[in-house]
Amino acid sequence: MNNDQYLIGLDVGGTKISAILVDETLSIISELRKQTLLISGRAIVDEAKELIAELLSGNDLDIVDIVAIGIGVAGMINFKEGEVVFSPNLPLKNVAFKKLMEDHFGVPVFLDNDANVAAFGEKYLGSGRGVSNFICVTIGTGIGGGIFINDKIYRGVSGSSAEVGHMVIDINGPKCGCGNYGCFETLASGQAIVRMAKEAIAGGKKTLILDFAKGNIENVNGEVVSRAASDNDQIACDILDKIGRFIGIGLTNIVNIFNPEKITLTGGVSQSGSLILNPAKEVVSQVALVPNSLDVKIELAELGNRAGVLGAAALALRELSS
Ligand SMILES: [Zn+2]
Predict the structure, then answer these.
(1) What pLDDT is stored for residue 66 in this prediction?
(2) What φ, ψ does residue 158 adopt, rounded to 5°?
(3) Most exposed: 20, 93, 122, 165, by fewest CB within 10 Å?
């Protein structure tokens, strides 16, 4: 790669689509963000193309200056085929995203799921730097993961690895979007926070959560609960503590199986910080096997909401050079 060549990272989420222009050291040159057009798969692909064109023209660059494009999409991805198989929050089903973008731009395009690209971001630019056996767990509305073993991402046989959100924690637990019961993400994600908060309010518990939600139970989300907890609301604190403990159970399984050096937590729920991190760490230290529990460091992510776009660019750089 020459000094005057660049990479583009794209993060396609259920609400926002973000693009970032970086140089060969993955330093940020410029970035753009828009609301995702949820009309159709075609509209999303067109919007991605337009966002990249805008990023190029805004920086007086042409597509010949770009060596590769990395894309992260929230959903099930077939990495080898470059296809979005299915997405729970986007109208993308069996969309050949990689081919459509490569045909349009004429440069290599690499497509992966949002949790894997976030893991790439943290591995190369965030808290996973220099850590060979590294796992990044994204805890937002759902839960996803990215696993690095000896510095290589582990994708599994069909490229759908690290769906840690669907390990079953409680067979009698709530029904999951995947059809099973008691998956990790039904107990420890943003949707679990909302469910617990609504149950507390419906049960007549006195809590600031409803005040922060402007008196409307439908406005209750993870951020509202986190704000109430920061104001020392006992119900909100109890919910986040419970969520943190469930996160600890999920992490214990991961720690016992993979014996990683570090696990980083990213995603919206992780922004509650020590309110969820401390109970999660406590559970791992009490329940996970020794020496695995002693070896692992569990930390919060460093890149915040840029992990996806930066990770998409890092994915493109790694795939290009591998
Ligand atoms: Zn599930």
Answers:
(1) 97
(2) -110, 15
(3) 93
For 218, residues 6+ apart whose C-beta sits below 8 A from its C-beta are none
- Return the SS3 of 78: strand
3 state SS of 183 = strand
Distance 104 CA to ligand 1 centre (A): 35
Q: Give the mean model confidence (pLDDT) for residues 256-277.
A: 96
* pLDDT tens readout for residues 128-137: 999 999 999 9
- In this structure, the strands spanning 66-73 and 109-113 are parallel
Residue 14 confidence (pLDDT): 84
Ligand 1 center to 180 CA (angstroms) = 5
What secondary structure does DSSP assign to 8-19, as a single string? EEEEE-SSEEEE
Q: What is the pLDDT of residue 3?
A: 56
Query: Cβ of 68: how many Cβ atoms within 10 Å?
Result: 23
| Distance of CA 268 from the midpoint of ligand 1 (Å) | 19
Mean pLDDT of 295-299: 97
Question: What does the alpha-carbon distance between residue 227 and residue 189 come to, in Å, rounded to a whole number?
Answer: 16
DSSP letters spanning 93-155: EEE-HHHHHHHHH-S-EEEEEHHHHHHHHHHHHSTTTT-SSEEEEEESSSEEEEEEETTEE--
For the chain, give the number of residues. Answer: 322
Cα of 179 to ligand 1 centre, how many Å? Answer: 6
Dist. CA 142 → ligand 1 center (Å) = 9
How remote is the CA of residue 71 from the centroid of ligand 1, in Å?
A: 24
Rg (alpha carbons) of the chain, rounded to whole number: 20
Amino acid at 58: G
- List, in order of start, the domains of the chain with CATH numbers: 6-121+306-321 (3.30.420.40), 129-301 (3.30.420.40)
Burial tier of 202 (Cβ tally within 10 Å: 0-12, 13-18, 19+)? exposed
pLDDT category, 139, cuts 50, 70, 90? very high
Cβ 246 vs Cβ 169: under 8 Å = yes
Residues forming a β-bridge with 72: 11, 112
